[in-house]
Amino acid sequence: MRHILTLTAAACAALMTLAPARASDFPEFDRYVTVKEQRAAILACKADLGRDGWPKFRATYVEYPSGGQTRLELLPHRSVSERDADWINACAAEALGLDRGAPG
Fold it and tell me: What percent of the chain has pLDDT over 90?
């Protein structure tokens, strides 16, 4: 038992010497884009495809790699099929210069 406590204390001491992560330690993959900008791009692409009706969105907060921002994505709903939603989301991501893989 004493041996386990010694090992645990040594492990804790070693962990405390590690430097905490800073935002500058992580590369920036995307520029910050507001939800308002994302919504406008999604609605523009939706209109380009000729789909009407109220949009249904999902917002996801992405800590990393995109630097802590909310990512908006259109979901299939009424006049928007799953295929349409994929195209609209890809269209908006391209227009905004965002990595499509980040939303999850």
Answer: 55
